[in-house]
Design goal:
This protein is α/β, with parallel strands linked by helices. The chain is built from eleven helices and nine strands. The protein binds 5'-O-[(R)-(carboxyoxy)(hydroxy)phosphoryl]adenosine and zinc ion.
Length: 322
């Protein structure tokens, strides 16, 4: 629940990590079923701090895409039902715009133009928010998203889902220099599948005695070294790409948002590389998926474009940043 689009009144997140960890990744049908079970209790919990409950609401915003269609439909139908029953304006918002606007929640005085690096499980995008409601795409990934690469490499290393935090943890004591990995950049585009494959081949080429029965490195030291080298290279690729966009646009302010922005090595590298610029990296709970960011993006959208007609249309492959 957000007030004036910028003040978080409540933020309730129903995590599905335990459910999906058992399968090593997200199972769409299970995600939708869990979403359906969680949505009403989560909204009730989010309303609890409001003295007037439902009566205190002025508008409803909901994620329209991108994402898993089953989950998007459940959210859109629920939001539409609330808006109809309470006669409230409703507005469908892009999940990616939500991530961009998490920077604004972290620093509500932030005004465009600014650059945003959006790094999540499904996306790696560098955009310029030219004005509220207007974004230009500067670079994206040609293949895997950064978070996807963390998740896939974690699997190769026998680490649990989600891979990002697991790799970050394993990398702490790892010798990043033991297995040097190549950096990839394709023109203006990011690319992570080559890096993932390089990790795969490095593991394949380890002496047989180093691998367990599942082809995973058996020694914690080797896992840590590979995790550290992968994280180091992935972070370098992201920061190099962002630097390139800064040079092209002359941006003075940059934001790094999305689940991968929770990565400590990335947060540190961005602060170091762009020490002369204004750098916004939201607190961890605003980097990973949350509803507050959808409220913030929706507040701007409602102000600029007014409400949507009834019957929000979901779009699983929506690409929209503002
Ligand atoms: O934005 P998000 O919560 O969900 C999507 O929109 O995808 O991002 C999830 C992604 C996952 O791939 C997860 O492994 C990654 O963010 N992630 C991290 C960290 N925490 C989450 N990646 C690297 N380091 C982390 N600490
Ligand atoms: Zn996300």
């Amino acid at each position: 629940m957000v007030r004036d689009g910028r003040e978080i009144v409540s933020s309730v997140v129903a995590s599905q990590i335990a459910l999906h960890a058992a399968h090593g990744g997200v199972v769409p049908e299970l995600a939708a079923r869990e979403h359906l079970q969680a949505i009403a209790p989560v909204v009730d919990a989010a309303l609890r701090p409001l003295a007037g409950g439902w009566d205190d609401l002025d508008a409803v915003t909901v994620t329209r895409g991108p994402g898993l269609v089953g989950c998007l439909l459940i959210g859109a139908l629920y939001a539409q039902a609330v808006a109809t029953a309470r006669r409230l304006p409703i507005c469908g918002v892009s999940h990616l715009a939500g991530h961009v606007y998490s920077a604004w929640l972290a620093e509500p005085v932030l005004e465009p133009p600014f650059l945003a690096l959006v790094v999540s499980g499904g996306h790696t995008e560098c955009i310029e928010l030219v004005a509220h409601g207007e974004a230009v795409r500067l670079a994206s990934t040609r293949d895997d998203a950064a978070g996807e690469a963390f998740d896939k490499v974690a699997r190769l290393l026998g680490l649990p889902y989600p891979g990002g935090p697991a790799i970050q943890g394993a990398a702490v004591d790892g010798d990043a220099g033991r297995f040097p990995l190549p950096r990839t950049r394709l023109g203006n585009a990011f690319s992570f599948s080559g890096l993932k494959t390089a990790v795969r081949y490095t593991i394949r080429d380890l002496p047989a005695a180093e691998l367990d029965g599942h082809g995973v490195p058996g020694s914690a030291e080797t896992v840590s070294a590979l995790a550290a080298s992968f994280q180091h290279t992935a972070v370098a690729q992201l920061v190099d790409g962002l630097e390139d966009a800064v040079e092209r646009t002359g941006a003075q302010t940059i934001a790094v948002v999305g689940g991968v922005a929770a990565n400590a090595a990335l947060r540190e590298a961005v602060q170091r590389r762009f020490a002369g610029l204004r750098v916004v990296v939201p607190p961890l709970d605003l980097c990973t998926d949350n509803a507050a960011m959808i409220g913030a993006a929706g507040w701007h959208r409602l102000r600029l474009r007014g409400p949507d007609p009834p019957g929000i249309l979901v779009d699983p492959s929506l690409v929209e940043f503002a």
